[in-house]
UniProtKB/TrEMBL annotation:
This is Diaminopimelate epimerase. Keywords: Isomerase. Its EC number is 5.1.1.7. It is an enzyme of class 5 (isomerase). It comes from Rossellomorea vietnamensis.
Length: 331
């Protein structure tokens, strides 16, 4: 078959976007999983953190399904939703759309550029669930906010929440960002273990100043990525709960691929949602020939590069200088 895809990224969290809706594809679950394993492999000509499948939806403008590089399916992807949001907004010639995801229908709207002419989208991150059985996390309590977990660290504290994909977050000093601790904790809770039977995304967060944080995430099903949108949203919420940032105010979230903004909204009665605002950048579009029974043997027929990455590099350089001076050099 012929397969069309777009390589895109949100904060350097990179994806292959495959539109099943317009191209008339109708993959089986196994085919989606095998496409993720074959095409996300960094040793292949593509390589990505995941595949974003765009499907039609009965009640929304489109439906997004997200497959991690290891072939597992995730319930949500914040950076990916900005890319899918841009794709569907441009396809339907709309400024605001609603995208069906595994557990919620989420609003996406085009927004004023975050930095010098960069296509920018604001996506809703919701629902936010603190009940540990929603991650799931097996521990003898119902919620966990800034508490220790002696099984994985004798000195760090953690918060656990689902947005609705699962996140384990620790607010740390710069010395922890550069140590091997995050990798070792993330590998423990993403290997065979009793605490997180389905694995969990693990983020270390370092507050820079009021209204500004740095987040590094080891993603379930992928490993360290440049950025994780749901993790940056969940981390922003945790810093508001810890009174390091303010609800309702924009928080600059720096990451290894650039920067986004997050607004954490208090909805009352302990309920929250977040607005994740950042780039949706296209790198190239490609056409391949492959057999779905053997997708790793693909042949790339054509590739057209977009030119917008050059503009994104300005934001990336700005973010890099902040991260290097405030995180890496002060460690
Ligand atoms: N990169 C994503 C999250 C992708 C899914 C995650 N690895 C999971 O398994 O939950 C984001 O931007 O949110």
């Amino acid at each position: 078959m012929d397969l069309n895809l777009i390589k895109c990224h949100g904060s350097g969290n990179d994806f292959l976007l495959i539109d099943e809706m317009t191209n008339g594809y109708d993959f089986t679950e196994e085919e989606r999983q095998n496409l993720a394993l074959a095409l996300c492999d960094r040793k292949s000509a593509f390589g990505a953190d995941g595949i974003l499948f765009v499907l039609s939806s009965e009640n929304c403008d489109a439906r997004m399904r997200v497959f991690n590089a290891d072939g597992s399916e995730a319930s949500m992807c914040g950076n990916g939703l900005r890319c899918v949001g841009r794709y569907v907004c441009e396809l339907l010639d709309k400024e605001t759309i609603v995208v069906q995801t595994m557990k919620a229908d989420l609003r996406v709207c085009s927004q004023e550029s975050i930095f010098e002419n960069i296509p920018t989208y604001n996506v809703e991150i919701s629902p936010v669930l603190f009940q540990l059985d929603q991650l799931p996390m097996n521990i003898d309590r119902t919620t966990l906010v800034n508490e220790s977990i002696p099984e994985i660290s004798d000195h760090l504290t953690f918060s656990a929440l689902a947005v609705p994909n699962p996140h384990l977050i620790s607010v740390v000093g710069t010395e922890h960002i550069l140590s091997n601790e995050q990798k070792s904790i993330a590998e423990t809770v993403n290997g065979p273990n009793n605490l997180f039977p389905d694995g969990v995304n693990v983020s270390f967060v370092h507050p820079l100043e009021k209204g500004s944080i740095y987040v590094r995430t080891y993603e379930r099903g992928v490993g360290f990525t440049n950025a994780c949108g749901t993790a940056m949203s969940a981390s922003s919420l945790v810093t508001c709960l810890l009174q390091q940032n303010e609800f309702g105010q924009e928080i600059d979230v720096y990451n290894n691929g650039g920067k986004v903004r997050v607004v954490v909204n208090e909805l009352g009665e302990g309920r929250y949602n977040m607005e994740l605002i950042g780039n949706a950048t296209y790198l190239y579009q490609s056409q391949l020939e492959l057999s779905l029974s053997n997708p790793e043997q693909y042949h790339e027929v054509s590739r057209q590069e977009f030119t917008e990455e050059a503009m994104y590099e300005h934001l990336q350089n700005h973010a890099k200088s902040i991260v290097e001076s405030k995180v890496f050099m002060s460690a």
